[in-house]
Amino acid sequence: MPLFDLPLERLREYRPERDEPADFDDFWARTLAEAAALDLAPVFTPYEIPLPAVEVFDVSFAGWDGHRINGWFVVPKADGPVPCVVQYIGYSGGRGFPHDHLAWPAAGYAVLVVDTRGQGGANINAPGATADPHGGGSPQAPGMMTRGILAPEDYYYRRVFTDAVRAVDVAAAHPAVDGGRIVVSGGSQGGGIAQAVAALRGEVRAALVDVPFLTHFRRAVEITGRDPYQEIVRFLATQRGSADQVFRTLSYFDGLNFAARGRVPALYSVALMDDVCPPSTVFAAYNHWQGPKEIAVWPWNNHEGGGGFQKEEQFRYLHKLLSDR
Amino acid sequence: MPLFDLPLERLREYRPERDEPADFDDFWARTLAEAAALDLAPVFTPYEIPLPAVEVFDVSFAGWDGHRINGWFVVPKADGPVPCVVQYIGYSGGRGFPHDHLAWPAAGYAVLVVDTRGQGGANINAPGATADPHGGGSPQAPGMMTRGILAPEDYYYRRVFTDAVRAVDVAAAHPAVDGGRIVVSGGSQGGGIAQAVAALRGEVRAALVDVPFLTHFRRAVEITGRDPYQEIVRFLATQRGSADQVFRTLSYFDGLNFAARGRVPALYSVALMDDVCPPSTVFAAYNHWQGPKEIAVWPWNNHEGGGGFQKEEQFRYLHKLLSDR
Amino acid sequence: MPLFDLPLERLREYRPERDEPADFDDFWARTLAEAAALDLAPVFTPYEIPLPAVEVFDVSFAGWDGHRINGWFVVPKADGPVPCVVQYIGYSGGRGFPHDHLAWPAAGYAVLVVDTRGQGGANINAPGATADPHGGGSPQAPGMMTRGILAPEDYYYRRVFTDAVRAVDVAAAHPAVDGGRIVVSGGSQGGGIAQAVAALRGEVRAALVDVPFLTHFRRAVEITGRDPYQEIVRFLATQRGSADQVFRTLSYFDGLNFAARGRVPALYSVALMDDVCPPSTVFAAYNHWQGPKEIAVWPWNNHEGGGGFQKEEQFRYLHKLLSDR
Amino acid sequence: MPLFDLPLERLREYRPERDEPADFDDFWARTLAEAAALDLAPVFTPYEIPLPAVEVFDVSFAGWDGHRINGWFVVPKADGPVPCVVQYIGYSGGRGFPHDHLAWPAAGYAVLVVDTRGQGGANINAPGATADPHGGGSPQAPGMMTRGILAPEDYYYRRVFTDAVRAVDVAAAHPAVDGGRIVVSGGSQGGGIAQAVAALRGEVRAALVDVPFLTHFRRAVEITGRDPYQEIVRFLATQRGSADQVFRTLSYFDGLNFAARGRVPALYSVALMDDVCPPSTVFAAYNHWQGPKEIAVWPWNNHEGGGGFQKEEQFRYLHKLLSDR
Amino acid sequence: MPLFDLPLERLREYRPERDEPADFDDFWARTLAEAAALDLAPVFTPYEIPLPAVEVFDVSFAGWDGHRINGWFVVPKADGPVPCVVQYIGYSGGRGFPHDHLAWPAAGYAVLVVDTRGQGGANINAPGATADPHGGGSPQAPGMMTRGILAPEDYYYRRVFTDAVRAVDVAAAHPAVDGGRIVVSGGSQGGGIAQAVAALRGEVRAALVDVPFLTHFRRAVEITGRDPYQEIVRFLATQRGSADQVFRTLSYFDGLNFAARGRVPALYSVALMDDVCPPSTVFAAYNHWQGPKEIAVWPWNNHEGGGGFQKEEQFRYLHKLLSDR
Amino acid sequence: MPLFDLPLERLREYRPERDEPADFDDFWARTLAEAAALDLAPVFTPYEIPLPAVEVFDVSFAGWDGHRINGWFVVPKADGPVPCVVQYIGYSGGRGFPHDHLAWPAAGYAVLVVDTRGQGGANINAPGATADPHGGGSPQAPGMMTRGILAPEDYYYRRVFTDAVRAVDVAAAHPAVDGGRIVVSGGSQGGGIAQAVAALRGEVRAALVDVPFLTHFRRAVEITGRDPYQEIVRFLATQRGSADQVFRTLSYFDGLNFAARGRVPALYSVALMDDVCPPSTVFAAYNHWQGPKEIAVWPWNNHEGGGGFQKEEQFRYLHKLLSDR
């Protein structure tokens, strides 16, 4: 992959105008309030697997409109409450297997891995277990990007972000968790979700945002030819005349607008050869972020971003951050 | 594309055992009865387009669970009721444009083109206008093949086939249509739908079934590596342990079981180099069909089947059939 | 497909210098005069197909050097002469089937669909029926772009454009046609041909030019990596030293030079993500067009351009234009 | 490439029925007689290139219908007449450069490299210089395989084989050549041509036939999905109903029918993983060959066949054969 | 991926003849004895990473010819010696990161992850850290499959298997490990290595062999067109005449010959749509295995095999096996 | 391929800063001195092949560290010493066959074709015969670009360039060669090698450098997405943190630094659509070259560059140059 986006020195200063609807905060306040009116109804079912170092639970809770959202909750055997990482997942994937999520417990944290509704049906490495019972209000491109995209109320990610915010509540309410030390985390779609949740739930302690997707849609769809952003282009190419409506919807979900509301400590990462989530879209959000922030730049990588190296950065970052408090 | 399936002489005799659930007829009787309890509520809105030879209507009606299904109704200017072709659509497509559907009117028939719910969101040649508001009961592979595949009640095609049967009612009820001369028609997915509707609505006058999809699933997923049958394989590869449940669901929707109930005249077509809907899956259905039948064999074609040649066959076939009655 | 060409605001003003040979007009005058010396010898053979709303004729006429050119002529049953659309075809395709061309008749126009000589031999959706008995004067790249490209007299499109001009005469001479209301139309290659014919036969009433090919060759071969423009690049890469000769030939066929002679009303379309016929090549011609003109810009589309939406635009455009006269 | 055709032990015995038209010999006698009525008119133009070991001539002669066919004639500086290899070329290629053809001269032979008319326009390694002024009698698939395929008289390879036979005459007439020691040679298309010429000009001393194309068409188009055989399939898929006519034409050009008339010594080669010219089509011809014969089997190769190894085999084979006489 | 290999019922009985050199056991005895003469020289360097549940060591030891082999050793904090899983790695990958290997420690085992020399240089998810200082005795195809393939003494996998056997010694010698409960494990290339080590080090307690590579070479190279087996085919296609020598070399490394010497309990897995390591090659080894054995069959999967599901099987299998002893 | 690099007028002036290590000359002096301490030990074994115009020798000599390097030496039968072209080979290829190298002998030169160690194992057209017994000091990406890339002393091309310099000595020492008229030559990798050797062995008479690889690494890896430059990117993406070390190593091998030391006459070639060795990287070197120089610009070609046309240029160039002296 050659370099194709802005050079690094311009990326560091790239802070574009945001397209923010006047009722952005109202929209989310209303959405979350409606959700809050429903009982969270978390269920933690012990999962039988011979992994004595941890306790594993098959979790479900009531997400948007009460739909059941599934996840894994893995907690190290400890004497008292531990901090918890709420982990969101990259596009197409599901929660996978409990043994995929042993790093945070080994580091001393509980981890709550949250399914992205409807996803994980065809990802051999990360099966999911959660339906999206709401099919959307228009035809859609295959994939999830355009499900319900003609209205913010109906857009798929309204349900996903609501589920994700409530997952923080699920984590916070568990007796093994220290509710004051919840961290949201994810890469790609998971990074976009974590970024949004950190803005919507300012109480979280930190956000780990890797190569975030769902961010700076307008530029993304114009400069990359790859999925999943191209799902939107295929929809626009077919459902002509819908562009204004589509971009209006997306403005309620754009990571730029969440980043501008992010006030907690954040560790970002970006890859300069990433043509799935181009570096300018990531820096655009990072440069709008309001809280204390750091960004790891991976100059030779595509969308894999920092991979395991970034994970080690995160262990060290949280270790320092949570020890310091 | 080389030849890859059985040789033609064996195809002509290929009539495999069917896997039919005991309550197949009950399931469909119940499904259609539930639907019938809802008002059809058809709306025919005149569509402004300078095509003086025909009248064009933007149609909608209440499909499964009352969801609004859209279509085009194009009718030649005539002195009395005309026969009507109800046209179903190939996978991923939507109803397209009225001017795409002028052949049947030029031949003297009304045509009702029926959206396939949720499809047509990313097909630049055939945009659709109909949502599938039901999202299914499990995660899914991108596309529609596995939406709700873990239970027959919840499977996507239960809704689609119900919509399709009700479209016949919509056509029959229109004053410009001679309700005794309704023909169902389609290619690929549309052929699978037409095949099912002809079995479920024995009152239709004929079925035109081209290179049908949704037929002989078990063999199809084992011998072709192409989509959309592979959507099912990707789901099975991910959602392991679900195969029995998946194939049980599919047995309620398998074209083989509808073909065995088909008693109206049918004109099939099949292509011997078709690796999307392999010829053995088509002949399997054709050889089970109970009514008067003919099949056009296209030896050098892939999934395009007979294309425009087949369409001319259909004009002639219907012309003869409907004149004879 | 990402955006890759000039931004829209610059496209609107992009009007490059043209490379026009001094004897451009002479060349075409001479070519058409030679052709005019041959009897047009049109033959209209009724085609048996049960489409009672129209009359269908299998047409042939003497094109360049008297070679027989085939087409379909489809005319609505009407009381007097009707306007006629002469339709040219996209690269690789042939005239297809009569039932593919029922939209203009339904709109009240006759339509003459003209084969592009030698094409349509391997396009499953649009078979052709016309040979190009002249093989050209040099080796060629597979495809038609470089057949005879070393001399304007010998170039394939000299024959094609001549055939196309004469098709207008064929239409005009038919008793069912109102010769004062002939419109030329086409997309891609067909758009390039229509553009040329409108310049060469100023008597036509209008031109419908969609995402035209054969236009601004010099830029096209440098900015797109896709066929068919790349056929020329492969020839240049092989037949080195021929570039001056090749571009000299092309200057007699370049849509820019025809556009600069276009004086009839024209409706263009262009797609901003079109990497087959890049938008700057289309705007270059449009900005040179001399007559009354409009252009539909499709921002999210590739070479499919406006598709059926554009077709609806054309119905409305002609309806208005031809009613107004 | 995995093995995909018959196992070697069955290949060695594979000698299928041939489909031979009754007037096969008449057809070719008539064709060659008509050609013989035209003056061969060879022109040998010295080519300036500092290669002192050889003399290089840019050759042309009158091929089918008098069309000028080009080639290179490279002859070692020698005291008397030398044997000559007439070399035919693989599909898409042209005669290339004189310095590509120095191996036979270094081995003591003159070499006449014969352009395949119309080819070599887009093969960067082997440009050609010869037109096919005859464009054929029907539309064609891109490439040369279907040019004029609806009638034997009009088929492209009638012209090519005639050119190729006359090239032997050109070689034989040159004073530097010993006309009793002319060998025909080629790989792929060139092998198919050499095979035909050896049957049509029984006076040649030997044939070197590598992985021959144009042989056992019927089986080839059914078992391989690759070009150029697939050009025929695409034509059949489009020009439906033409199959009988197409296979009748091909029967006049099928290597099986030439092989059955081959009486001179022949050295064949075949590759067991060749999915361009499948091994069964090669063995089918080899097993029909009537003269003394040997075949080199390359078990792990695709269409590259024996490559340079086979060339060394040929040096040794001819060295022995021509020394022995 | 369609099914392409033998049907399951035949796979269960497929036990082909093996091609075993007479001195197979001598070769390996000599190879391992030479290696044993060198000091193992293990170095365990604590690795600083805030993962308090485990101890992490960056390991190196002297492999074949004393070359330094690197790995990770991760051990749960425990009161006494624990069993240890020695983990080998799939083709192209390296040891990755310590946090990738926390599942076995969470299950109560130490894990020693062993680099495959020379690999891991371009696998973004699993970087390696170990060179192969021996470059081989002939040119090679890119990749590792043909490095030194012309002689068993020189073949790459002689070094790899020797490293792998010695890794068991490294594990056994560590004070935290119960040397009587060492299990070898791996998938694909790692499965092939584990299979070999279990035969060569009969003292290991069990082998976990997933979709093993390096097994039944002769059939594999003939039925699959995918890498890495195709590296061998490309070599054979180029280095002609070397096939006997190559297959002789491979006979010393073929999993079939190791399986026939496998006497410890083994848990295999196989995927029926695996076209990288075709199921017949896996069953061939499994059916030759001499010890107690089980095999998990994944009917809908390609080379991902059982994925995380298989991992859970392994937790349960070892839990039972090691508790039972 | 569209144009993608700088426009020609800027290319002609593009002369970037070079990144040259202070001890560049020392490094190479030391390397070559160490090599010179080893006996060259050339062996010329006559090769039996019936090519009477030339003498063919299978050559080997002691390259870096005494490793045996193989090649072909082909010499025309002549009365006295002849000039000699030392030919280096493109990436992945080996020396091929003697009959591939008859052009220089036909032109009156001896030719020494030098294997590139380790390459030619999987190039069906150009098998090699030379091992690289040194495997490098770190894991590597498949291919040769990153073998030993972490240290200049250990880098693969240190061995290759040393072999290449010594090949000049081998040629010069042969009695059939006029040691004062040795020319180095090659395309792509071979061009990079020739460029380096011309700088390191200022005694050569000229350099023929076609579309050179291994030149201006820093820019190349950023602007092209194709192999082999991308081998380096994949390594950097995996072995993170190694970039400084990698680029330091490469600075000892970068064609820019050799070009700046080139003082002999040089004939370069460059292709403007070359996305393997982008034109700016070639012009960068050419513009740094110190000696008399010419460059052939191929505007429409990709990495095939000038092909046979360039070869003819070279015959003429050397003919003039060597006659003039």
From TrEMBL, chains A, B, C, D, E, F:
Question: Is Glycosyltransferase a UniProt keyword of this protein?
Answer: no
Query: Where is the organism placed in the taxonomic lineage, from the top?
Result: Bacteria, Bacillati, Actinomycetota, Actinomycetes, Streptosporangiales
Name its GO BP terms in alphabetical order. Answer: polysaccharide metabolic process
State the Gene Ontology terms under molecular function.
cephalosporin-C deacetylase activity
Name under which the protein is recorded: Cephalosporin-C deacetylase
Q: Where is the Acetyl xylan esterase domain?
A: 1-320
Kindly give the Pfam families that the UniProt entry links to this protein: AXE1 (PF05448)
The record's EC number reads 3.1.1.41
Residues engaged in binding substrate: 91
